[in-house]
Write a structure and sequence with these properties.
Helix content is 72%, strand content 7%. The longest helix is centred in the middle third of the chain and has 38 residues. The strands form two sheets. The chain has a two-stranded parallel ribbon with strand order 1-2. Strands 3-4 form a two-stranded antiparallel ribbon. One of its GO terms (molecular function) is ABC-type transporter activity.
Amino acid sequence: MSLFRTELRRLAKRRFTRWMTAGGLLILALVVVGLFVTNEKIGTEQWAEARRAADSSHAEQVRWAEQERANCERAKAAGENVDYYPADCASIAPPAREDIQDEWYLPSTFVFKASVPDMLVTLAGILAMVGFVVGASFIGAEWNTGGMMNLLLWRPKRLSVLLTKLGALLTGMLAVALSASVAWFGILWLIASWRGTTDGMTSGVWQSFLLTGLRGVVLVLVAATVGFALASLGRHTAMALGGAVAVMVVGQAGLAILLDLAQVRFGEAWLLPTYVYAWMTKTLTLEDWRSCNASYTGECNPATLDITWQHSSILFTVAVVIFLGGALWTLRRRDIT
């Protein structure tokens, strides 16, 4: 019997894998419900209501301005100290009606073109967490229960066995990520059709969305590989989960506070979430408002630093090489007892 098919079947039949996948899908379902409930399609009725709201707001501004102008004139006539009023009370005037835009009072609507990029980041983030935990549990449980040692008695090729398990894990996560991505696009399209708009979609926009979705799939596979490698290094699921908690909660949060106290320029460039987001959005621009680049008009512009998906790809590659390489090296050198 093929070891790969056996491992793939074991992965699919593990209750932890099923529950974690179901949990991730449940979170995505709640996001979908929230999007459907909080958005609505914009029609003539919504525009009419927005216009009435804008008219009401303008009338309120007019009443406020008239009252304040009258108070100003009365206070100056009484000789009171009115430093908080302008020198000319007549300058207290309401905004023009055209300055109050009807669009401000429209209800929230789901614009497919504008909203999908952030929704793909959400999908990739949730599936990456599922992949990390499933990957760590898949190999960690094998070490903890002694299944890995028993298997190596029959298949003594250590590296081949470990890589076959990793291949089965990545195949399973790839199937889940691709299926979820296709379903995610379809559901978001339906929400936009019923509770928003799908205008502005061109072939170029679709291509950009598909590439973003593919980068999300790669992120899921990287997270699963790192979780698998960490658990294999520690020969226990807790090694990966504890390491993740230490890095994200203690390391990243503590480092963010330290960088802020030290006033390090572009401190976000030292944080892992920055590179994850840059990977999904292709470019993330960091700003340092403590620095001022004066323009020819005298305007103060902050110094900027661009983090691109290429920077993120280097970081992910180094992480995979170090952790997976370390897991393979330790398995080759250490005794299986």
